[in-house]
Design a protein that fits this description.
The chain is α+β, with helices and mostly antiparallel strands. 63% of the residues lie in helices and 10% in strands. A four-stranded antiparallel beta sheet has the order 1-2-3-4, with no helix packed on it. Helix 4 packs antiparallel against helix 10, helix 7 runs antiparallel to helix 8 and helix 8 packs antiparallel against helix 10.
């Protein structure tokens, strides 16, 4: 039942080329332990170094080692008796007795023990697989959140530079006898944008520390900005996705294996009503006989024994069966509850993905183009004295808000797409399979 763990990690990452591109910001503050800027690099680092993943790998290996233990016979028993005072018999004094016994459980017991243990190991494997997907999901969501912060800082810096470039123009108007209020308004807006920029920068430190912890890196160094791009809009068939989550999610598969293990334990409890056998061999070593003329004098006797236990404690065996049956029913209910939770999460992520795609389309070229045109017109009108500085500030504020909303929608789209892929157990860096609407 052993499963190649490395092959599964490759499947999680996928064989598709990395979906990120662009240029990483060079910074002397970057983490010297890790220079990865793509999602693939983040995932590979996490799967290789995260200690929780290593722990689950060892749990799985331990479960595999328990299978041959469960399916093996109990150790035979060897008993040697030495007579301090020999028992005198007709054929000679008994000096030593050698006894060896081997217990044999009732037919089917070993097979069901192996079945139960094997199913438990399979359940641990799927729990390990689920932990890998959860880690990949956590890393990916954090990756795009960190990437959005990078975009937000870059856009805010551009906005701040634009407002600062207006300051000399406004000062010139004030020095020429113009109203002081526009300059004050501009300084207030510059202060607000500077404060927002500092908040984003502080958020970067917090996000970098969180990601570093997941990647088993030092949290004292700041990670470089990720490389990512806008997602392509995709239409997904919710009905197919709901079917896939039940069929492919490892948490569901884990519970199914535990149900199989409970069924095997139910059968084991039933078999407890039948006796176990013990086969034995006895050998008695005799000393020199007193009367050598007696037939068989001095010959060591030996023989075979067969014994059975008597399963008379009916209530105990009944409790074993009831225990296994209740466990099976509990796991069935747990599986049903897990399916409901996963389906609800899938529907929610599917809805959020559709909304993110809608916002990307809404804030796309048209609105952003109009907002940029509005800034150019407002700035030209202000320089020509046809409008006030507030119109320029409002136009610039509208543009940066649209840009932030646009990249927020992009990050949301990526994050919810990844959540859906992990729910249905598909490679994060691959394309959706058998889920697109026809």
């Amino acid at each position: 039942m052993s499963i190649n763990i490395k092959l599964y990690l490759i499947a999680i990452l996928g064989f598709m080329p990395a979906l990120q591109n662009g240029h990483a910001e060079k910074s002397h503050e970057s983490n010297p332990e890790f220079a990865g800027v793509t999602l693939r690099a983040y995932l590979e680092r996490a799967q290789e170094f995260n200690p929780e993943i290593k722990a689950f790998e060892k749990f799985y290996q331990a479960a595999l080692h328990r299978i041959p233990i469960a399916s093996s016979l109990p150790d035979p028993k060897l008993q040697i008796t030495n007579f301090i005072e020999s028992v005198q018999t007709r054929t000679g004094p008994q000096e030593n007795v050698l006894m060896i016994n081997q217990s044999l459980p009732w037919f089917g017991t070993l097979n069901n023990r192996e079945r139960a243990s094997s199913s438990e190991a399979e359940a641990v494997w799927f729990a390990y697989q689920s932990k890998q997907l959860s880690l990949a999901r956590l890393v990916s969501v954090a990756f795009y959140e960190y990437g959005y912060t990078g975009k937000a800082i870059s856009l805010t810096e551009q906005n701040l530079e634009l407002l600062q470039s207006l300051e000399p123009i406004v000062k010139e108007k004030v020095e020429a006898g113009g109203d002081l209020n526009p300059l004050l308004r501009l300084k207030v807006e510059i202060g607000k944008i500077s404060d927002r920029l500092k908040s984003f920068e502080q958020n970067r430190e917090a996000q970098s520390a969180k990601i570093s912890g997941i990647l088993a890196l030092s949290a004292s160094n700041t990670l470089p900005w990720p490389e990512w791009k806008l997602p392509e809009a995709i239409e997904l068939n919710l009905t197919t996705l709901l079917k896939n989550v039940v069929e492919n999610n490892p948490d569901i598969a884990m519970l199914k294996q535990r149900v199989i293990s409970a069924e095997a334990r139910m059968e084991l409890a039933r078999l407890q009503n039948y006796p176990d056998f013990t086969l034995g061999f006895n050998y008695i070593q005799l000393g020199d006989p007193i009367n050598p003329g007696v037939p068989d004098a001095g010959k060591d006797p030996w023989g075979f024994t067969v014994s059975v236990n008597i399963p008379i404690w009916v209530e105990r065996n009944k409790s074993r069966r009831s225990d296994a049956l209740s466990t099976k029913h509990a796991l069935k209910y747990e599986q049903e509850n897990k399916e409901n939770i996963l389906k609800a999460e899938l529907v929610a992520s599917h809805s959020r993905l559709k909304d993110a795609n809608r916002r990307l389309d809404l804030y796309g070229d048209n609105l952003l183009k109009l907002a940029r045109q509005s800034i150019d017109i407002s700035k030209t009108s202000y320089e020509g004295g046809r409008t006030g500085i507030l119109d320029v500030i409002d136009s610039e504020r509208s543009l940066i808000e649209l840009q932030l909303l646009y990249w927020r929608a992009a990050a949301d789209a990526w994050q919810n797409r990844i959540i859906i892929q992990t729910l249905i157990n598909q490679p994060i860096l691959g394309s959706f399979k058998a889920t697109s609407e026809k």
